[in-house]
Amino acid sequence: MNVLGYKLPAMSSLIIWGALWEIVGQLELSFFLPALSDIFVTLTEIIGTPPFIKALKETAQAFALGTFFAVSIGIPVGILMGKNKLADEFLLPWVNVFLSAPLTALVPVLMVLFGFGLKAIVITTTLFAIWIIVLNTRAGVKQINPSLVEMANSFGASSFAALTKIYFWAALPEILSGVRIGFIRAVKGVIIGQLLISIVGFGALFELYSAQFLMTHFWAVLLVLFAMAFTLSEFLAHLERKVEYYASKR
Amino acid sequence: MDGIMTTTHAVEVRNVFKNYGDVEALHDLSLDFPKGELTSLLGPSGCGKTTLLKIIAGLLPATSGEVFVNGETVTGPGPDRAFVFQDFALLPWASVLRNVAFGLELRNVPKSEREAKAEKYIADVGLKGFEHKYPHQLSGGMRQRVGLARALSVDAQVLLMDEPFSAVDEQTRRKFQEDLLDLVQNENKTFIFVTHSIEEAVYVSDQIALLLPRPSRVSEIIRPGGFRHKDPDSIRRDSEYLDIVDDIWKSLRTYVE
Known about the structure:
The complex is a heterodimer. Chain A has helices at about 10-25, 35-45, 50-85, 85-100, 105-115, 120-140, 145-155, 160-170, 170-195, 200-210, 215-245; strands at about 1-5, 5. By secondary structure, chain A is mainly α. Chain A has a single domain, classed as MetI-like fold, CATH 1.10.3720.10. The longest helix of chain A has about 35 residues, at about 50-85. The mean pLDDT of chain A is about 90. In chain B, about 35% of the residues lie in helices and about 25% in strands. In chain B, the strands form two sheets. A six-stranded mixed β-sheet of chain B has the order 6-7-8-3-9-10, sandwiched between helices. Chain B has a four-stranded antiparallel β-sheet with strand order 2-1-4-5, with helices on one face. In chain B, α5 (about 170-185) links the parallel β7 (about 160) and β8 (about 190-195). In chain B, α2 (about 95-105) packs parallel to α4 and α3 packs across α4. The radius of gyration of chain B is 18 Å and the shape is globular.
């Protein structure tokens, strides 16, 4: 970032907003916004405690399972839709409906169907993440160079080989950006699931802290969540940049 | 083996029709491709030459009619044919080595064996030292050399080339044409070569099938003979070469708007 000809160091905007937050917090304008330094103090206090570790484990487990299913179902379904017109016409309306549907409203239905445990939370997480992965994979497969498919056919590729050696790789840049957005949505999904279905994990911590007006605790957990989501998203963005060199030349 | 087939023709096309809906792309087309020779399919755009090539490759089904490769009916792609694509069709995410070995990879040849073979053909097409480069790091001409090496490495008897030099610059194109003459001489393969360039067809071909459009049929078969074994530089000044180029242009000019 350049301001008045000076190159500002990386993350300067983060520092400026942090400083602003600290000032507003110190003014004690609202109980809702405690000073950033207080939040960090609380953060160091709670981060190693057994309840926090337990919540982290529960959330991480549900998140990992939910995104695992979203990726392992979403990518093959997306490839199928991109390759097969019939499958595409059959599934596309549903994918679009679920992509824009207010999934939170569906959570009570999931509770009825799948109970109040981990299963329902994982399914909620998957439902938040999967649709964008399907759509992006489909888009990636649809723009594949038809010559590449003909080339594979001309050398006698089996349909499985064409899938794993051509379609998947040709669609990889789109798949990765779908997975990145899907994972960010999954963070939302897992917390909503934990808040609404059974009060466990970070959802339970949010519920507990906000009910007791422990705003520094509330923000501390939120910051941890932000940091983890940001790291994950940056990691996937890094993978995307690695395949960028061929994204424009397929 | 079909009884009526002779061994002197590597590929035989018999009464092939191809319709796209109401449009007749190929009309009752029959053509023989002598073994060990290069035959060009030459014609204006839209004359169905690429369609014919893809039917021979087994990539497109004919509406009716038959294609024989070494006497066997074509029902799909097979190891007896290899295809060179106009846009090269290289895997952008794979190195030159893997691209060249990719035909063998799809045929489940073990890694060390296929890479040894690929390295030989990479050297043959003049790309030694580029094995670990990626397609986007190569020029258009080099990319087509990769495509050619890939087709050669599967050791098919018939090489199908779809306007292989049309996407490279003029100088590279001339060099390619000269190299192609050597290849036909040394490789003992049958080449089927689609082009819309009259000069290119006359320069490289043992036999030229002139296709006329709407619907496509073979209007003439020309066999340039006299200058075939001259050295590459003098062919372009040979009077027979120039006459054939002129004759073909006379046949084709009425079809050019």
